[in-house]
Amino acid sequence: IVIVFTLNIYTMADSAGLQFVSSYAFEAMQKVDVASLAALSDPELRLLLPCLVRMALCAPADQSQSWAQDKKLILRLLSGVEAVNSIVALLSVDFHALEQDARKEQQLRHKAGGSNGESILVSQLQHGLTLEFEHSDPLRRLRLTLSELLSIMNKVADSNGEFFLKSSELFESHVYLDEVADVLCILQAELPSLLPIVDVAEALLHVRNGDWFLCLLVANVPDSFNEVCRGLIKNGERQDEESVGGRRRTEALRQLCQMNPSQALNIRAMVVEECHLPGLGVALTLDYRPDTPDEAVSPLVSYVSGLLLGTNSKVRTWFSMFIRNGQQRKRESSSVLWQMRRQLLLELVAILPRSRSTHMPNDGDMVEEASAGYSGLREEHVVKASALLRLYCALMGIAGLRPTDEEAEQLLQLMTSRPPATPAGVRFVSLSFCKLLAFPTLVSTPEQEQLMVMWLSWMIKEEEYFESAAGVSASFGEMLLLVAMYFHSNQLSSIIELVCSTLGMKIAIKPSSLSKMKTIFTQEIFTEQVVTAHAVRVAVTNNLSANITGFLPIHCIYQLLRSRAFTKHKVSIKDWIYRQLCETTTPIHTQLIPLIDAYINSILTPASKANPEATNQPITEQEILNVFQCSQGEGSRGGRQRYSITTQLLILYYILSYEENLLASTKQLALMQRKPKSYSAALMDQIPIKYLVTQAQGLQQELGGLHSALLRLLATNYPHLCLVEDWVCEEEVTGTLPLLRRMMLPSNTCRYTQSQLHQAFQKLPSSSPRLMRILEHLTLLSPGDLIPYAEGLTASMALLLEPAVPRRILQTLNKLWMGLNTVMPRRLWVMTVNALQPSAKLLRQQRYTQNDLMVDPLIVLRCDQRVYRCPPLMDIVLHMLNGYLLASKAYLHCHLKETADFERQSQTVSNLGVPGQPDTPEVTREELKNALLSAQDSAAVQILLEVCLPTSEEQQQGASTESLLSLLSDLREVQCLICCLLHQMFIADPNIAKLVHFQGYPQALLPLTVAGIPSIHICLDFIPELLAQPQLEKQIFAIQLLSYLCTQYALPKSLSVARLAISVMGTLLTVLTRAKRFSFFMPILPCLVAFCQAFPPLYDDVAGLLIQVGQVCASDVATKARDIDPLIARLQYLKEKPQGAVASGGGSSKLTLPQRTAEELGGADPDVQLCYCVEATFMDIISSTLHGL
């Protein structure tokens, strides 16, 4: 780049006419280019003599031959210059003594407080400073100049930043300027510690011709350029245009940069870094002229845009203050701000279409060509025009620039010009439109308003062509529609946000300033009906994703849906939304989910109560099925997937959200006598819900909040697809270990077909090894790849119930089933239930459907009885049962919600005037639903408990085998599986536990349930209520259950309930008849032993109860026969002296009763039997207590 600098008219008057060091000469000095120095003219060479003379006379550090030759050339160059002799004489002075005198003078002035009293350097002057300088020898000249310079430097140090201009005869006389400059340069070079060059530069700003001296000084010490500039900038003012000192400093630095143009941009960077002298930064940019005039964006536009639109708020505030302060002063041609505005205006006019720039400012008038009034903006100017627009927006919106009439006119001409159909052209139109909205004051006359309306009309007409020709998805047409919709709905704050985001800057726009634009938009250009009709015709965005930025058709449709414009004007939007949902990909666009929500709301909620039919149409079932036809998962039949996973997930979200909102709106819909159609169960069965959610789980980053929204909807509407054990199982199926196993699977491994799997099942048990190989291979496949084998695996399950099938095959099948359950649970459950039916049902070809199983979940337990003793298959059955019980709850809740509000509404109409009548059926329906669900759950629990009971064959086998082997049986494993499920059910709903125990179950199962169901301890809460029941059977069951609970959970709460039970038993003893007393106490007396074992403090209460029972029974016996056996006396003795009973028993801790013959017990009176049982209980308590000790 060739850089040319031109001296601006903004120069100091006092240095006008003086010759400055040229950039060529400074570069030669920097590089010590002797050949270039020799080419300089005598006046140019004169300015550099101090440095050249020192260079020739002083001993050099460089002893090379080349420098020796260069030094000879310098000496030859200096030999013909007369002024060299005076400089040589200056260098002959004793500078050490001079420095000592200068320092003494500084100390003297410091003591005198800076007053101009005695001077050590200069004795009393008889003439003026100039005459003294003229008549003095070199030493005295040095002393005069040094004294004057130190005086100025001291005054600068004491000024506290306040600028002053020192009148100095020495620095103002044009006759002696060269000699003074020579002395100054020699002094600074020989006394650098006394005269730091930065301090000297600062002092020179306070004298006339200071910029000339400064440039000369730096030219003779070229290495100090950056140091001097940084020092001047650091000590400079924050706003240089505000003061004389700031302007002098700016001009001095500007002259330095003209002397060394290669460092100008670095000096400008220092200005920005320090946030000082903003005018200098602009001036340096104005001086910069690149050699390529057609550059896309000019340096001035780039620089000012970077300051105002950058991320540094400190820089932005600093420069904005420069703009604001500059406007307050009277317009001056010497002001840097007005020079900047002038240059920007020239650049703006230069790129306008020639017929649009009807007025060239101050450069002559142009002939207006009316016929070409709307010629287009040239393509090479579009980017520059966009940059200029953004810059003027920043200047006006951030820096508070008030445009002149000339600037406003030319800006409007540029904004309403018509660019070519390119992406840059689309961007330019969008920026122009937003600038019109941000600064509507640019349109002030009726002619300008008409021009704007014509341009907006052109935008509407050409939008589609621009989008197709430019090849962009986000065109300005969507922005027009969006703004029109915001104006119609009076969302002015949204328009302001849109404008700020498009322009890329935060601008304070008053909503009141948009009133004129609102009138134009809503009444002249975009009526609401035009907006809706146009929006439907806008093409959808292909492959819509979050990667496509800008304002898209989806933004417009969303706003129109929210304002209910489509339903108000009866415009169907269903097809457009469906097409857009089908044209989506990852990462998901943030506007899609709000669009679906707004669409669903417009389907269910009318735009107004006066017109309840004004709603949008829902997506049809066939259109939904088309999306899932080739999908994998529950409804898959193979084939190629046509729609993206994003489309399928969005359609799934639409269906689930639609159904949920439909249920939530039933009351309002009933009042309006509207009943929108719900999607059929057949459709839902064909959608692979679980598979899609599993896929979404791996795409959470790309799907945004869609995955969590789907999980929320599933938990509400499909709780059976959100089982905790399913999530845990998925971790096992999709975890690291299974992934590594699949990676180890060779690609050329044997592939088994479904027919081979079917044949292996049919030839069981002889084909067990082959079937095992096939199943082991299938375990290496992913759940998605297992889907084709699902039907073959489930259809042959009944064959695995044969006795000779190896256990490993059953366990492998269970593992495969659990894997398939992660991707296609609902269809898998239906197939499994049908496959496990008893053989009689299979012969009748009775096939259950998904709906059948949700209506009656107990169908799952009506399977082949052999399943109850096959733990791997029983695990599957229990999993399905748990799922269908949850599904049934959700199904009945939805069914009740769907029909209740409409039936109640009709009953309200029919029972008008009857108070309280409409609410009765509603309460009854809810109670009936809850009763049905409770009956289902309790029936399932009772059936499962019954399964836990051993059959007669198992009882015989258990009696003949060892106890350890009985614990390893299939029955024991099934009991454990059932207890795990019951534990989960009791935790999920404690009312089930209460209901089941109020119903009761065989006493033989109590040891199993209490030990195997950890959550059964909650029964302690309702046992008192169970004891209060009038039926003896329930009271007996409560006491038996409590005895096991006390043994299992010896807690304070158990102790209190046990005391209550003993009290109840004592009360019942007094009120029961003889027959009921026998039937009540015979089964519960052994429970007292457990109470005493768990809680020894209950011994006295239990002993007292037993004595009471014995007394009552003995008295009844005494009325009929003689008390042969003195029972009461023995019981009293046992209570008072249990140790004595041990002693009489021979010291054995195991007490025994007298042997009774069968005839004595069997034929004895019930009271006699009860007496003997009481005595046996007493002895067991004593025995267990002493055994425990």
TrEMBL record:
<dbReference type="InterPro" id="IPR026236">
    <property type="entry name" value="Int2_metazoa"/>
</dbReference>
<keyword id="KW-0539">Nucleus</keyword>
<comment type="similarity">
    <text>Belongs to the Integrator subunit 2 family.</text>
</comment>
<dbReference type="GO" id="GO:0034472">
    <property type="term" value="P:snRNA 3'-end processing"/>
</dbReference>
<dbReference type="GO" id="GO:0032039">
    <property type="term" value="C:integrator complex"/>
</dbReference>
<dbReference type="Pfam" id="PF14750">
    <property type="entry name" value="INTS2"/>
</dbReference>
<protein>
    <submittedName>
        <fullName>Integrator complex subunit 2</fullName>
    </submittedName>
</protein>
<dbReference type="InterPro" id="IPR029321">
    <property type="entry name" value="INTS2"/>
</dbReference>
